Amino acid sequence: MSDTQTSHPHPPPPPHPSHLYHIFGKGSGFIVGRKLGEDKSYLPKGVYTLNPEVTDKEGGRLLMTLSLWCAHQWTFEPGSKLGHYKIRAGGGVVAERHALLWAFLNGVEQPHAVEWIVTPVPQAGPDAYMYVRS
């Protein structure tokens, strides 16, 4: 093994269900979450990469204040198998619809038993994970 490579004999621990997390796009570095300018209905809400320099608050992008930071928290609930999780963005269950990510807020629209496989990717850097629909 070269000096630039490191061994990761023990992958990072899985997400803890009582902790809150923030997800950043590896390529862009932008936070991933729901828009701030959402309507107040219980319809599904889109999940986006949020670039604070491109779009203003009305377009759903943000300035990083504490209250806005808290609006983009993610939680992970253990799923039916080891390494599988139900993921929530801003309280809504995250699922795919038409090849896009949505946060579903009610039982009518919400997909049944959506789980994601969360896999550490140590070669991409510390705290790097891949999320794949199970």
SSE diagram, text form:
Layout: E1 23-24, E2 31-34, E3 45-50, H1 66-70, E4 74-78, E5 84-89, E6 92-97, E7 100-104, E8 116-120, E9 129-133
Antiparallel strand pairs: 1-2, 2-3, 3-7, 4-5, 5-6, 5-8, 6-7, 8-9
Which tags fit this structure?
mainly beta, Trefoil (Acidic Fibroblast Growth Factor, subunit A), 1 helix, 33% strand, globular
Determine Rg (CA atoms, Å): 16 Å
- The overall strand count is 9
User: What would the CATH topology be?
Assistant: Trefoil (Acidic Fibroblast Growth Factor, subunit A)
Uncertain regions: pLDDT < 50 for 5+ in a row?
A: 1-11, 56-67
Note the total helix count.
1
CATH class label? Mainly Beta
Structural class: mainly beta
Write down the domain tally. 1
Terminal residue distance: 33 Å
Average residue-wise pLDDT: 74
- Overall, the morphology is globular
Give the ordered list of helices and strands.
EEEHEEEEEE
Specify the biggest β-sheet: 9 strands, antiparallel
Give the percentage of residues in beta strands.
25-35%
Helix content percent band: under 10%
CATH architectural label: Trefoil
Q: Your description of this structure?
A:
- With 134 residues, this protein is mostly beta strands.
- It has one domain (23-133): Trefoil (Acidic Fibroblast Growth Factor, subunit A), CATH 2.80.10.
- Helix content is 4%, strand content 33%.
- The chain contains 1 helix and 9 strands.
- The protein has one helix at 66-70, and strands at 23-24, 31-34, 45-50, 74-78, 84-89, 92-97, 100-104, 116-120, 129-133.
- Strands 1, 2, 3, 4, 5, 6, 7, 8 and 9 form a 9-stranded antiparallel β-sheet that branches.
- The radius of gyration is 16 Å and the shape is globular.
- The N and C termini lie far apart (33 Å).
- The model is unreliable at 1-11 and 56-67 (pLDDT under 50).
